[in-house]
Amino acid sequence: MQAFEFNSRFEHGQITLPKTLHLTEGQSVRVLILLDEMAAEKGASQDDAKSVWERTAGTLSDDFPDEITDDDLGIDTPRHELD
Q1: Rounded to 5 degrees, what are φ and ψ at 10?
Q2: Quick one: 23 exposed, middle or buried, by C-beta within 10 A (0-12, 13-18, 19+)?
Q3: What pLDDT sits at residue 10?
């Protein structure tokens, strides 16, 4: 099996294949579709951004950052000096 990777867009119910991909009529193919989440985030509407803000707003307590204590900090690991 050969694998080909290319970017395309789904428009009008179709995905455009590159011209360099030579397929013959009736040829069997296996199709795997990966959705580009980064591109979807870039194209997110203002309502989506508002929704994210509403979900995350108020998640910190009123006394943040005063609530952070030494128990929240990582333990320092001794390091050897470089020669």
Answers
A1: -95, 110
A2: exposed
A3: 84
